[in-house]
């Protein structure tokens, strides 16, 4: 089993489902007392939100990229960013990763395609809804249209 690095804390509440669902998936597949091999870095959301409010996305990307490097040093063989909004700086994080970085829009796009859906509704924070880092990637990579709710 590979070790997954969870880059969370944005907010800590949104990190919990990643931990729970990954472990539930491992248990369902392997049974018994099996659980996932995970490494978690929970950043201080106060710092990230300050960057968001100031429009300092470069600094937010640096903070998260440094955390991703730490996850790799701790043994992570892949990185998951446990938030939609901060995928705005996914390229900055992925550039520092020596291991695979799973982009949430790619995983979402594959799930949409597997179900044969052609039109989807996207719900998210103001940043996710007003900018193209998520929607644009879905449209480019998976040729889907979305509808604002």
Brief characterization of the structure:
By secondary structure, the protein is of the alpha/beta class.
- Output the strand order for the largest sheet: 2-1-3-4
- Helix-strand string: EHEHHEHEHEHHE
Main β sheet profile: 4 strands, parallel
User: What is the CATH architecture assignment of the largest domain?
Assistant: 3-Layer(aba) Sandwich
Helical coverage, percent range = 40-55%
Instruction: Report the end-to-end length measured between terminal Cα atoms.
Output: 39 Å
* Helix-strand makeup class: alpha/beta
Unreliably modeled segments = none
Total helical elements: 7
CATH topology of the largest domain: Rossmann fold
Pfam families: Asp_Glu_race
GO molecular function: amino-acid racemase activity
Protein name: Racemase
Family: Belongs to the aspartate/glutamate racemases family.
Characterise this structure.
The protein is of the alpha/beta class and 149 residues long. It has two domains: 1-102, Rossmann fold (3-Layer(aba) Sandwich); 104-149, Rossmann fold (3-Layer(aba) Sandwich), CATH 3.40.50.1860. It is 52% helix and 16% strand. It is built from seven helices and six strands; from the N terminus they run βαβααβαβαβααβ. It has a four-stranded parallel sheet, sandwiched between helices. A two-stranded parallel sheet has the order 5-6. The protein is globular and about 45 Å long. It starts with a strand and ends with a strand. The mean pLDDT is 91.
Layout of strands and helices, then pairs:
Blueprint: E1 3-8, H1 12-30, E2 37-42, H2 45-54, H3 57-73, E3 78-81, H4 90-96, E4 101-102, H5 104-114, E5 119-121, H6 126-130, H7 135-142, E6 145-147
Parallel strand pairs: 1-2, 1-3, 3-4, 5-6
